[in-house]
Write a structure and sequence with these properties.
mainly alpha, Transferase(Phosphotransferase), domain 1, two-stranded antiparallel sheet, two-stranded antiparallel ribbon
Amino acid sequence: MMFDQTLPEEEAKRLIKQLIQVLAYLHSQGITHRDIKLENVILNEKSNIKVIDFGFSTVQNPHKKIKMFCGTPSYMAPEIVSRIEYFGPPADIWSSGVLLFCLLNGYFPFKGQTDAQLYRRI
């Protein structure tokens, strides 16, 4: 998948910094989003981010791993793809890194003709 356009590095940094601040707050409250992707990060009238669609989110004990494997394939962390129990916050950070890569380059860092092929590359 290709995106229509890329962002200048300074703008991408500004948006990702805001996203990381949002995630830091959510994680401090025990909330993991689990579906960070371009479609779930929108801009308000001042061009600041808003995170939406908490359908896959969960409230968790920070010392307990998650057993449910969900998210959008191209943004999934390796531990989710491998179906290994995982801590939520690092998975959100991985997805944020994929999003940053996409904003700067206009395409995903990992590609495959099928989900299985994509998962092997992740």
